[in-house]
Amino acid sequence: MDKKFYITTTIPYVNAAPHIGFALEIVQADAVARYKRLIGYEVFFNFGSDEHGQKIWQNATQAGKTPQEYVDEYAAKFKALKEKLDLSYDAFIRTTDPKHKAAAQEFWRRCLAAGDIYKKNYQIKYCVGCELEKSDSELVDGKCPLHPNLTIELIDEENYFFKLSKYQDALSELYKRTDFVVPDYRLNEMRSLVKEKGLQDFSISRLKSKMPWGVEVPEDSEHVLYVWFDALVNYISTLGWPSDGAKFTKFWTGTPDTVQVAGKDQVRQQATMWQAMLMSAQLPLTGKIFIHGFINSGGQKMSKSLGNVIDPIVIVDEYGVDALRYFLLRHIHPTEDSDFTMERFKDAYNADLANGLGNLASRIMTLAQTHLPEPVKVEFVPYPEEFTSALDRFEINKAAEYIWGRIAALDQRIAAEAPFKVVKEDVELGRAMIVELVKELAAIDLMLEPFMPQTSKKIIEAIMANKKPENLFPRKD
User: What is the pTM assigned to this prediction?
Assistant: First the structure.
C-alpha cells in the first residue's frame, strides 16, 4: 500500500467536559479518515489533549488539585470519546507525555539554532481563555469577545520570542495557494494581516515563577514553553518525531494528504504560527488545513448562563451514536456556523432515520427474508464520483445529501415497482427485483460506513444473513 493519509484534529484544552462543538470536529475528521481507509489509503488519525498553560494551572489550583491530577481527570473524559462517538483514531497524544515534552524541547532547539528565538521585555494584554495576547482592536469593551466573562490580564515580564516577522515573505507566498486552507476565504484574514500590518514576533515562554505548569525551556529552568508553542508540536510528536523518522516521513509529507482540522478561531495559530515554526525547524509544512464553523443553539452562542449548552454524550445515550454522527455530518454545515437545537435533531431523527433509512432497510430485508431462498451475494461497488468528490473537497454534508438522495430514490422505486405484489404473481421476476433492491441497499450501506459505522455494520450483517435487521432507529415522540 503506497497511498498515505494523515489527519489530525486540534487537541482540546482539558479544562471542561467535551462539548457538541468539539464532537463536530472529531466526527468530521473520523468520517474522512474512515473514507480514506475504505478507498485504500494507509491512514494515521491523530487526536489528543492539550494539558499545559495558565488556564489549567489556575483551574487546578481553584479545584484544590495538582495540575497533573486535574489534567488526568479531564483527559480521561476526552479519551472516552473513542467509544462514545465510535472514533477510529490511531493515536491519543497528551502534551504531558514524556515523549511529547522531549519533542517540544527539540523543536525549540531547532528554532533557536535557526536564529529565530530571542529574549526581550514586553507588555501585553492577555486572554487566559484563548491563551493568546490581544490587541486593542480585538477587544470589545475591554473584553475578549470569545471569553467576555474573563478579565483581560496585563503581562509585563521578560520572555523568549519567536521571529514570526522573519517569515512574512515566505508565508505570503504560501498564502497564494488556494488549496492550502479549506475554505479559502478563511485565510483572507491572514492575507490581509500580512499585507496591511505585517507579522509581529510572538512570545513563546512564560516565567516559571509566575506560571510553573509547562514544559521547561531547554537550558533555562526559569522559563516554561508558551502553551501554543508546546501544543502545536503534537501534530508531529504523535508520529514519533524526532526519534521515529520512518513514521514521521511516511505521514508528514507536506502534501494535501497531510491534513489538519480546526475551528474558525484557529486560523492564526494553524496557518501562521505553526507554519512559520515548521519553516524555522526546516520541516515540511502542513499540506491542507480544513476549517469548520461553530455550532450555535437557538441562534445564540452556547453558554452555561443561557442554559443552552448541548451535551453530546447525553444525546448518544438516548438516541445512539450514529444518530448524532448523522446529524453533525449532514445537518451541520462543514464550514459555516450552524444551529443545533434538540427540536431540529428530533425532527431529523424521526424523518430521516426512523421513517427513512431504518424503514427502508426493514422493508427490503423483510422482502428478502420472505421471498429469497438464500442471501444475496454483494460485491464492492466503487464509490460514485458525486460522493468521492464531495468528501475530497471536505463538503461532508453534500456527500451525506447524496446518500439520502439514493435512499429516497430506492424508496420511490419500491413504491413504483411494487415488488411485494409482483412476487406473488411472478415469483422469478419478483425475486429478481428484490435482489436488485438488496444490491442497491448494499451500495448505500457502503457509503454509510464512514458516517454511521454501527448502522452500516448492522445492515450488511442483515444482508449476509438474509434477515430483517433489528429496529435500527426506534421512533421517538
Answer: 0.92
